[in-house]
Write a structure and sequence with these properties.
It is built from no helices and four strands. By secondary structure, the protein is mainly β. The protein has one domain. The chain starts with a strand and ends with a strand.
Length: about 45
Amino acid sequence: MIVNQLEVYDMDQDGRDDIVTLDNRGVISILSLRNDSIAFDQTDIDS
């Protein structure tokens, strides 16, 4: 995956910013920081 565009929003309104990406396949994804670590969960919302 190659990220073509990246924006930062609070998508789930939890008070923390999430990273929204658009990749070279045309997929929009949200990267949300996990509560218990420094890892991110990725959720594809469009393809």
